[in-house]
TrEMBL record:
It comes from the Bacteria. It comes from Photobacterium pectinilyticum. GO terms for molecular function: amidase activity. InterPro entries: Amidase_CS (IPR020556), Amidase_dom (IPR023631), AS_sf (IPR036928). Keywords: Hydrolase. The lineage of its organism: Bacteria, Pseudomonadati, Pseudomonadota, Gammaproteobacteria, Vibrionales. This is Amidase.
Length: 402
């Protein structure tokens, strides 16, 4: 068993609850954060595994997928405590990115992304707090859906920072992602979005695209040109300027709020077992413990002000925004720890928008550049998830046209 991808403990296969259903014929894997009754959820850390008891109940997301005919083919690894975006794990190894073996796979849903990208499963469920679905989707050339905060249940699952945690889905094929989302959120009322906003009309965040590494920005521009040629309703906005913020400020507010949430959730365990974590995660934990009440409340206030203004902008431009998922191509596996720390600071400025605002975001893979995957994201208003998928299908069809 490839321990960098699949967990050596826990159920390798869960039998389907039904042999028939809309997901019959589809296989999935799940991140080692979701509980299965009778097994210990490992959260990517041997000390966590050793200090916790078997789960008493199974994640309702897993049960819903099984009940609709999907077959589970394994539990997959995660970065430690889901507190990383690289896909690295010092205990179990770094999974090989099947699309770009020289690059990191992205995390923390690393095993989920790699298993899907190499064809072991049609789709995977993972989690996204600060980008842990969107980033590995970008690095491995997959569709990656981070839903509206709270739409998918995280009952009976490990929680890193509840104020930002979401479950999410990775898939190679948009049609598969579409089916899975309809199973997971069948009761979401998207009629208003479907009637009024599922069109080609949307805004492109020029300010954020201007911050993307130039080779990637130039490649993405050719896709945006296709959209522009067939779309009279497209407009360009600069969210950063309009909201009066920088990516550095967004990243900082996110780190402070997330850090306080992590301490509130895991203070006792971290106090005794912090030494078992990788050095970079230990440094983030130490910073989280050092956050003052004043810093936390100031970050909350600034983040709430940004959220109100951003939602006004999003409403004003039709409810859809195209923006970069990451600031460039996936980093190399042999990148220095120092360069990865610096890259993470920039990356969080991009991924924090959806997190701070609780919004759905979907990464769309567009192809390869110098042998490395690249793409962009579509972001929507709260609870527009099903319409977001429909809008994305129209976009991909437009991007594929000659």
């Amino acid at each position: 068993m490839d321990q960098s991808v699949y967990c050596s403990q826990g159920p390798s296969v869960l039998p389907p609850l039904t042999l028939h259903g809309p997901l019959q014929g589809y296989n999935f894997v799940f991140k080692d954060l979701f509980d299965v009754e009778g097994y210990i959820t490992g959260a990517g850390n041997p000390a966590w595994l050793a200090t916790h008891q078997p789960a008493k109940q199974t994640s309702p997301l897993i049960l819903r997928l099984l009940a609709n005919g999907a077959k589970c083919t394994g539990r997959v690894q995660t970065d430690e405590l889901a507190y990383n975006l690289n896909g690295q794990n010092v205990h179990y190894g770094t999974p090989i990115n099947p699309v770009a073996p020289q690059c990191l796979p992205g995390g923390s849903s690393s095993g989920s992304a790699v298993a899907v990208a190499r064809g072991d499963a049609h789709f995977a469920i993972g989690t996204d707090t600060g980008g842990s679905i969107r980033v590995p989707a970008s690095y491995c050339g997959l569709f990656g859906w981070r839903p509206t905060h709270g739409v998918l249940s995280l009952d009976h699952a490990f929680s890193l920072a509840p104020c930002f945690d979401t479950a999410g889905v990775l898939a190679r094929d948009m049609a598969v992602l579409d089916k899975v989302t309809q199973i997971l959120i069948p009761d979401q009322d998207n009629q208003a979005f479907m009637d009024e906003k599922t069109t080609f009309g949307m805004a492109v965040d020029k300010g954020l695209f201007d911050l993307v590494d130039q080779p990637v920005a130039a490649e993405i521009q050719s896709f945006l040109k296709k959209l522009e040629n067939g779309n009279r309703d497209q407009c360009y906005v600069n969210v950063l300027d309009t909201c009066g913020v920088t990516t550095g400020e967004l990243a900082q507010w996110f780190r402070v709020i997330q850090g306080r949430s992590i301490v509130g959730e895991h203070q006792d365990w971290l106090s005794f077992h912090k030494h078992t974590l990788e050095r970079g995660i230990v440094e983030r934990v130490d910073r989280a413990f050092s956050i003052t009440d004043q810093q936390y409340h100031e970050a909350l206030e600034q983040a709430e002000r940004f959220k109100r203004r951003f939602l006004e902008v999003l409403e004003g431009c039709g409810g859809w925004l195209l923006l970069p998922t990451t600031p460039g191509l996936p980093p190399l596996r042999n990148a220095s720890p120092e360069s990865l720390v610096a890259y993470r600071q920039t990356l969080l400025g991009f991924t924090a928008i959806a997190g701070l605002c609780g919004l759905p975001q979907l990464h769309l893979p567009l192809g390869l550049l110098s042998g490395k995957p690249f793409g962009l994201s579509l972001l929507g208003l709260p609870n527009s998830d099903l319409a977001l998928i429909n809008q994305a299908k129209r976009l991909m069809a437009c991007f594929s046209s000659k």
